[in-house]
Amino acid sequence: MAAAAAAAPTRAEVLSLFRSLLRTARQFSDYNIREYTRRRAADAFRENRALADAPAAAAAFANGKKQLEVAKRQAVVYSLYAPKAKSVMEIKLQ
Questions:
Q1: pLDDT digits (tens, 9 = 90+) for 33-44
Q2: Which residues of the chain have pLDDT under 50?
Q3: Looking at the chain, which terminus has fewer C-beta neighbours within 10 angstroms, N or C?
């Protein structure tokens, strides 16, 4: 069990996690939270890009999966209390 936990995730698994985080970020109706979530995901993946050892990569991947679950729960909560008015950043000029 310990050997499986220390195995580094594959490139496909990492990309899948990244895409899932971006998809979850799109579910937020509030512009600021949506952009923060997207930016935070990209920054975290950029930070951990150079991880070479398997245990550190596995730990970062596990942390990313936990963050994905948190983001999914928060997206549901925010959808229940979504603001009625759009942000200034979302209003399109005509």
A1: 999 999 999 999
A2: 1, 3
A3: C
